[in-house]
Write the structure tokens for this entry.
Amino acid sequence: MIAKHKLARINELARKAKTAGLSAEETLEQAKLRREYIQAFRKAMTDMLHAVTVIDPNGNDVTPQKLKESRQRRFH
């Protein structure tokens, strides 16, 4: 998860970009923070999906094979 102060900075830079515009340095900082945020989001989403097991109404495990393989790759 991304730190709160970084998320606040992302939002601050986005507001400034809409109103006054950003300097070249701020644009680079914004891009770096956005990459970091997206990377953290993807990791959290992947972790959540690896914890999911899909069960049909008959009680059978119907978790997609691709997800099972991804889970196995991760833990080995």
